[in-house]
Write a structure and sequence with these properties.
The complex is a heterodimer of chains A (509) and B (117). With 509 residues, chain A is an all-alpha fold. Chain A contains 23 helices and two strands. Chain B has one domain: Helix Hairpins. In chain B, α1 packs antiparallel against α2 and α2 packs antiparallel against α3.
Chain lengths: 509, 117
């Protein structure tokens, strides 16, 4: 394979959405093409993953312009594993949306926009140019604006106003940061920036630029004082859309954090402290927020915020072990967060409600589905040997090694409250008797009355992602191996820089 | 010229943030547009302003000589302008729909999604 292959995970979903535009009015054909295309995307992602794993860091120079002058696409271990996870989550959501998204929404272009969103995600993971990263972020947010407002219900529009404002503000701040960095160094290539930033004498100005990046990405990743748009908007669109938002969109912010604060602004004591303090507050406020909510999807929205804190903490501690924890947590979190929103969609289809006071009786009705739901829910808590357990071991170990007891305390607090919240959700959803409102309503039990083909398409995505997260838990050795690889590259990005700029290093003196 | 542009950029940022902090939907969008223009000017200034020195290599030479304008920031601004044009036109449609559905442009009243269910 040639290095040009790494662009395929970006081009293919784009071509797919062009194809989908031609079948605009044919709902069922669009659903079929979307699922088939998502399967091909998974195959491409697996190919990229194995290729990157055998070759190390692969760089592709667009238009064959040599490195700091053109736009570079880079596939390293972190990018390729995230593309694989994004394509798996994309497949699951694509299958789920064939039943979870109604025909009017499909006729207004759900599928083309959805696949352009996936294009944007893959592009953001692959690009090696900071301005190009901004462009992919814009591709992602414009698609997410369309998806969050698609349908035009009142709550969707209200959520969209907040979502739109904060995300556009984040873009402006991100662009300001790029302008400052360009003014300081005269380059936009991330590998080159890594070398040029290290040479700058005025560290104060560098810290200012880093803080602009911190705030810009912080809004997208939903960290402590900047996350209020998330619980206000993520529960408003249909479940399939919430699932892709919850699973992947905030994680792009985390990816940008990892990339920028290891490659461009590495291990600065000041930035590390900011990261750690933000992480502690994010964990605490996310967990406490989830505690008082009664709507299933709002509970999950706050849990997203809480667990972003876990990854930030690992990044802030700045040791190899903590990076391993962050990366393996990211792997686990993408699969499980996508899945729990699909679980909430399945619960809505079965019981007709999302309020923790009303729902219930799932075990009596569908014992197997209840058992299936246990996998993502308890993976989220990190009950051994499920997938959340191993990353936490690394994170706890790193916090102990660096004697960061506040971080350790926050991690334990976050884990305990997650356990309590999931236990509460489980007891309500599965064991509790459903309220009279649901018993009387005609919605209850429609799921059993649906044709088998539709029921399979509701359950299959949940089962697929549950299987993946079971593998992450039980095959932890392989996952930890990958995460350690990534952590080594994050700690010492020399192979990344050499792959992009060539062994002679920077071309600009 | 640099000083003038710096002051204008500052004013654009300040007024943009001020407009965002108002409670009206329309002022929110105006604020975001002003901020977008501010950041475009900031990028423009970061490229070291040179008067009358286009980055075009003369026929007689193989290299650019003397002071020339940096073309990269201008390419960046062009991209940023196109993107913000798209986002702002979406924003205008969004506030119109929101106003028609919610029947208010007071941001403090657009908060039903934050209430407890």
């Amino acid at each position: 394979m040639s290095p040009q292959f790494i662009i395929w995970p970006v081009i293919f979903p784009l071509l797919l959405s062009v194809l989908l535009l031609f079948t605009w009015a044919k709902v069922n054909l669009q659903r079929f093409i979307s699922i088939a295309g998502s399967v091909v995307s998974v195959v491409l992602a697996v190919a990229l993953f194995t290729y990157t794993r055998s070759e190390g860091v692969i760089a592709m120079q667009a238009g064959n312009w040599p490195a700091p002058f053109g736009i570079t696409f880079v596939s390293d271990s972190l990018s390729s594993v995230l593309i694989l996870l994004a394509s798996l989550a994309g497949l699951a959501v694509s299958v789920f949306s064939s039943v979870g998204i109604n025909s009017p929404r499909v006729r207004f272009g759900f599928y083309p926009v959805y696949h352009i969103l996936l294009t944007g995600l893959n592009g953001a993971f692959l690009t090696g140019d900071i301005f190009n990263l901004y462009v992919w972020f814009e591709v992602i947010i414009i698609c997410s604006f369309v998806l969050i407002t698609l349908g035009g219900e009142r709550k969707q529009l209200e959520g969209a106003v907040k979502y739109f404002t904060l995300n556009m503000l984040a873009s402006v701040i991100f662009l300001t940061a790029i302008a400052i960095v360009y003014g300081l160094t005269g380059t936009l290539n991330m590998a080159d920036l890594s070398l040029q930033i290290a040479k700058i004498e005025n560290r104060f100005l560098v810290d200012i630029a880093a803080l602009f990046f911190f705030v810009g990405f912080g809004i997208k990743a939903a960290v402590f004082p900047l996350y209020f748009w998330l619980p206000a908007s993520y529960h408003t669109p249909p479940d399939a859309i919430s699932a892709i938002f919850g699973g992947l969109l905030t994680k792009v912010g985390v990816y940008a954090y990892i990339r920028v604060f290891t490659l461009i602004f590495p291990a600065d004591a000041f930035i590390r402290e900011v990261l750690v303090v933000t992480a502690i507050l994010t964990i605490a406020s996310g967990a406490l927020g989830a505690l008082i909510q009664n709507n299933l999807r709002k509970v999950f929205s706050y849990l997203i915020v809480c667990h972003i804190g876990f990854m930030m903490a690992g990044l802030g501690l700045g040791t190899e072990q903590s990076f391993t924890g962050t990366v393996s947590y990211l792997i686990h979190d993408i699969l499980v967060k996508t899945n729990i929103f699909l679980v909430s969609g399945l619960a809505l289809a079965i019981t007709g409600s999302l309020s923790l006071r009303d729902i219930g009786g799932l075990y009596k009705q569908h014992p197997w589905i209840a058992l299936l739901m246990a996998i993502p829910l308890f993976s989220l808590v990190g009950v051994p040997p499920l997938s959340g357990f191993w990353p936490k071991i690394s994170l706890f170990g790193a916090a102990l090694d660096t004697q960061s007891y506040w971080v350790l305390g926050a991690l334990i607090f976050g884990s305990l409250l997650t356990l309590f919240i999931i236990a509460k959700v489980w007891a309500a959803l599965v064991w509790q008797n459903p309220s009279e409102k649901i018993e009387k309503g005609e919605v209850y039990g429609t799921f059993s009355g649906l044709p088998a083909g539709i029921r399979v398409r509701y359950v299959f995505p949940v089962a697929l992602l549950a299987l993946c997260s079971l593998y992450v838990g039980l095959g932890a050795e392989f996952i930890m191996d990958i995460s350690t690889d990534v952590a080594l590259l994050l700690k010492d990005p020399k192979p990344y820089i050499e792959a992009v700029l060539g062994p002679e290093q920077s071309l600009i003196p | 010229m640099d000083l003038l542009l710096a002051i204008i950029t500052g004013i654009l940022y300040a007024s943009g943030i001020y407009m965002i902090l108002r409670r009206s939907l329309v002022k929110l969008i105006i604020g975001l547009a002003l901020l977008g223009n501010g950041v475009n000017l900031l990028i423009f200034m970061m490229g070291k302003l040179v008067k009358g020195g286009p980055p075009i290599i003369p026929e007689s030479s193989k290299l650019l000589e003397g002071a020339f304008d940096d073309p990269v920031p201008q390419a960046l601004i062009l991209t940023a302008i196109v993107i913000s044009f798209g986002l702002q036109s979406f924003a205008i449609v969004l506030i119109k729909r929101t106003y028609l559905v919610v029947k208010t442009d007071d941001l403090d009243e657009i908060n039903t999604t934050d209430e407890f269910a």
